[in-house]
């Protein structure tokens, strides 16, 4: 029987850091080798048969590590991250409860995979999925669809190529959906539209779109050429907001498929009429050679928690820097522990770009206020009215209360966070001066009398 274990951030980090490299091989969504199952020694320890958080409230969440069963060679583990801004259920009173836990249980029962969840420092959701390859792939697709906010995009390919995307008995399409954790809708044969709609996360959509265009290129009767270009130079060829490659495609009538950042490929694929295609390839080669000669790099350290502010919503901040300075900024993958950010561009432009990187990194901050956990509900106020006063003034500030922790976490624009922090600290000081807290032991047989009918007595004070 499947089970869910809701881990604290600390126990999750302790578990992961306590394993030696030979004991774990974690495949992430950004990995090109995610379909290769690890060996017996690489496999991750199995999850518990019954969750500590569901079966025994007295047992710590990390206790499952003491209940190890024999591992089958077919068991694999994948860990991936859902950023705070992409979480569907980010405003729960207690992590791991409510609709999110219900969805996880349903996914495990349906797929036979094991799930474990934890909150990262940036309040994103870390999800660990274990089981047989097929179960893990299905569970991951369900998780993305049900726990992560969805976007959609369309890609146009010739109508006669649609059947190659579908494949025999729909197998190609199903495999593509599993690999990219997306939903791909292809028009019916009697529909004249050549637009294929892809629904999923931004990263999943990029991967699926890239694969669909590659399938189409293989079937295209026009000329096809592949050009190897170092991954680091792809942003210069695409240009800010993909405008440069868009102009080349429009002027030459050639389709140019550049792998998205999340796909670890260097090959750029051109499809078009032979003469126009040659022009497009020549222009791309010229850009590539010029950038290789003229650009240099600098590496700087930026806190991991600040990387998302440098990236910006949908990568817009990186595109802004590229547009204003001509400098490409490379950020380590979210699953990497590296804090090194690489700037690549012409030497005279690197200084300006570095200034912008630091400005964006420091434009948002994460802070905390010390407050006893018993005081949290009074700070929130009835129906959240106290917090509403703060968030209405500063809507970009996210305020997080974690049950059992004597602190309140604030995240948002630096100036707004500072103002919100002052207001909450003043509120905490006032409440502590006026209130106190004590725990008393009462025999459980009297609890119902204290609670009262329909909880009438449970909201004292």
From TrEMBL:
Record's protein name: Vigilin
Pfam families (alphabetical): KH_1 (PF00013), KH_Vigilin (PF24668)
Main location: cytoplasm
Source domain of life: Eukaryota
Database matches in PANTHER family: SCP160, VIGILIN
Gene Ontology molecular function: mRNA binding
Highest classification ranks of the organism: Eukaryota, Metazoa, Chordata, Craniata, Vertebrata
GO CC aspect terms: cytoplasm
Presence of the UniProt keyword Repeat in the record: yes
Gene this chain is encoded by: LOC102747631
Organism of this sequence: Leptonychotes weddellii (Weddell seal)
Annotated compartments: Cytoplasm
């Amino acid at each position: 029987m499947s089970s869910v274990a809701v881990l604290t951030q600390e126990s999750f980090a302790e578990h992961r850091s306590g394993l030696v490299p030979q004991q774990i091989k974690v495949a992430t969504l950004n990995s090109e080798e995610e379909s290769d199952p690890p060996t017996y020694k690489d496999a991750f320890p199995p999850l518990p048969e019954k969750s500590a958080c569901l079966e025994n409230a007295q047992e710590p969440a990390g206790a499952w590590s003491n209940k190890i069963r024999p591992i089958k060679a077919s068991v694999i583990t994948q860990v991936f991250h859902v950023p705070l801004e992409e979480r569907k259920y980010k405003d729960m009173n207690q992590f791991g409860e409510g609709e999110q836990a219900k969805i996880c249980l349903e996914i495990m029962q349906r797929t036979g995979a094991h799930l474990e969840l934890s909150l990262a420092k940036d309040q994103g959701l870390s999800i660990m999925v274990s089981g047989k390859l097929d179960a893990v792939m299905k569970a991951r697709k369900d998780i993305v669809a049900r726990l992560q906010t969805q976007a959609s995009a369309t890609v146009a390919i010739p109508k006669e190529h649609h059947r190659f995307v579908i494949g025999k008995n729909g197998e190609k399409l199903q495999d593509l959906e599993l690999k990219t954790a997306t939903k791909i809708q292809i028009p019916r044969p009697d529909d004249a539209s050549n637009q294929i709609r892809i629904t999923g996360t931004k990263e999943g959509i990029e991967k699926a779109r890239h694969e669909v265009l590659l399938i189409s290129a293989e079937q295209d009767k026009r000329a096809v050429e592949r050009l190897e270009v170092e991954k680091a130079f792809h942003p210069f060829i695409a240009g800010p907001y993909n405008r440069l490659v868009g102009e080349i495609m429009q002027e030459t009538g050639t389709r140019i498929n550049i792998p998205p950042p999340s796909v670890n490929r260097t090959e750029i694929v051109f499809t078009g009429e032979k003469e126009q295609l040659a022009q497009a390839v020549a222009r791309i080669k010229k850009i590539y050679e010029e950038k290789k000669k003229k650009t240099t790099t600098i590496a700087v350290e930026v806190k991991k928690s600040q990387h998302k502010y440098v990236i910006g919503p949908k990568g817009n901040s990186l595109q802004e820097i590229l547009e204003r300075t001509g400098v490409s900024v490379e950020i380590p993958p979210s699953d990497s522990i590296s804090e090194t950010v690489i700037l690549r561009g012409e030497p005279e432009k690197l200084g300006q770009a570095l200034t912008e990187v630091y400005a964006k990194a420091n434009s948002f901050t994460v802070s905390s206020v010390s407050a006893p956990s018993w005081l949290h509900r009074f700070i929130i106020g009835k129906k959240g009215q106290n917090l509403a006063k703060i968030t209405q003034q500063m809507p970009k500030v996210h305020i997080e209360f974690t049950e059992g922790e004597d602190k309140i976490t604030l995240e948002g624009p630096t100036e707004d966070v500072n103002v919100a922090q002052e207001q909450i600290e003043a509120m905490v000081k006032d409440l502590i001066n006026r209130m106190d807290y004590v725990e008393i032991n009462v025999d459980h047989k009297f609890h119902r009398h204290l609670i009262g009918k329909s909880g009438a007595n449970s909201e004292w004070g």
